[in-house]
Design goal:
alpha/beta, UDP-N-acetylmuramoyl-L-alanine:D-glutamate ligase, 13 strands, 20% strand, globular, Carbohydrate kinase
Length: 324
């Protein structure tokens, strides 16, 4: 039986005024994992509104199990207002008090217990309200899965107390360089410059932090410079990125795409060198289209075929419910 993954957190709609794009880091991750054929339970909450229907449509398009999708009558589906500047920059306003702030503990537990996942994924934004935070804690107390934390800090919505608690709950943590710098400020004796992720001081502080929080691994994404993996057993593996095919459109969700292939590699038994290279390549490919998820879902099978040809001993698997 295929190893299952549970993802907890926000599913929302990015509102550009002229168009709406479904997103939310946990939902981006869940969609990619489902695209690669893994059984995924996405635990989130939406309202009975037009934005909620957009999210339901994406659940159906990717063949995601609906058992974790809660609906709150009278609640608003999560949204982010996006303003695009003349220079192409984006200004985000994350709307407070949304449906994903009201995730019900009992329903979440029932959905997770039915799947018994091998990996449990969570972040920090959906912990901003005590109700959803309580649901997450109930799930973490119940699960025997490996706990993967994508820190995904959002200024003004996540405080250090939530970060500290999340790090204590996690087994594997993924951060970008800015988030790593913030963790250094909070939890380390020194704050080395992450421009050179290979320097001894960065490695030393990362490992001290991993030891203090009992982490088995830390993954740091560095944009076009690739990614770094550190494990508690002393491993230090770096991959310095992939050249993007095609013109750059946006980097929305690139980190979520990386996470999906990183977790896929873990479940498939790939070497860490293979995993990082493939995660970086897939993340780079998402920068060639708008938004976090592709319109043509046949790309997932194409990636698997390419990876098969490159020497992995995996068996290519189909993606139930996913069609081009």
């Amino acid at each position: 039986m295929e190893q299952a993954v549970t993802v907890f957190g926000e599913a929302l709609v990015d509102d550009f005024s002229t168009r709406k794009v479904v997103g939310g880091a946990p939902f981006n991750l869940a969609r990619h994992l489902a695209g690669f054929g893994l059984p995924v339970t996405m635990i989130t909450r939406i309202g009975d509104d037009a934005n909620g229907q957009l999210i339901r449509d994406e659940f159906a398009r990717f063949g995601l199990q609906a058992s974790g999708l809660q609906t709150g009558p009278g609640e608003a589906t999560g949204s982010v207002h996006v303003e695009v500047g003349a220079d192409g920059s984006h200004c985000f306003t994350i709307v407070p008090d949304q449906a994903y702030d009201h995730i019900d503990s009992a329903a979440a537990l029932a959905a997770s217990e039915a799947t018994q996942p091998a990996i449990f994924c969570f972040g920090t934004l959906a912990q901003r309200d005590p109700r959803s935070r309580a649901a997450l804690h109930a799930l973490l107390e119940q699960t025997q899965a490996v706990r993967f934390l994508d820190l995904n800090l959002r200024a003004g919505f996540v405080d250090e107390t939530i970060v500290f608690d999340s790090l204590q709950q996690a087994d594997i943590v993924k951060v970008n360089e800015e988030e790593l710098q913030q963790l250094f400020k909070w939890y380390c004796h020194t704050c080395p410059d992450t421009v050179n992720m290979e320097c001894i001081s960065v490695d030393t502080e990362c490992r001290a932090m991993m030891h203090n929080f009992s982490l088995s691994a830390l993954v740091v994404t560095m944009g076009s410079r690739g990614a770094l993996y550190l494990s508690a057993d002393g491993a230090h593996v770096a991959d310095h990125g992939a050249t993007m095919a095609g013109a750059f459109v946006d980097s929305v969700g690139a980190g979520d795409a990386f996470n999906a292939v990183f977790l896929l590699g873990r479940l498939r038994g790939w070497t860490m060198e293979q995993t990082l290279a493939r995660a970086n390549a897939f993340a780079a490919s998402t920068c060639a289209y708008a938004g976090a998820a592709p319109q043509d879902l046949s790309c997932y099978g194409q990636w698997m075929e390419e990876w098969m040809r490159s020497g992995t001993t995996d068996e290519l698997f189909s993606a139930p419910g996913v069609t081009g």
